[in-house]
Amino acid sequence: MRSPGSVWRCSSIFPILELIELASVSRHLARRCAAQALYQWMMTGQAIAEIESAFISDDGLNDSDISYFRHLIEAVPERRDALEQRLHGMIERPLSQLDPVERAILLIGAYEILFRPDIPNGVAINEAVEMAHLFGATDSFKFVNGVLDRLAGESRSA
Q: Please, which pLDDT band fits residue 6 given cuts at 50, 70 and 90?
């Protein structure tokens, strides 16, 4: 099976579009790795700096936007309380009862919706849904989509 980045490395008659596609894949991979790193952080309590160095030394980050990966794994824990407070209003059960994978994905999506105006809400939601398809339980993508869509709607009206 090809890695997602290899699909975009084919030669193109549109080099600008290819660069945009590569950047998009690079950010996508950074989000995926960040979700895994945040999951590890929540499950082990390990220092973010240790997790970061382990992920960066691993080959899994080769095709990703490492600076965005670093940004996410530093900013999400810094704003965890604010993010969880906002998410709490969108979820009918305590966040502590969520699957840790879903929780990590929701934290990244919520962070991008609330604190990254340069990232369209639709992109943040779609990326989170894709991660939920990949890492989550069977129907977790529906849950992630619903929660982040409500959050995005609330943040637009605020």
A: very low
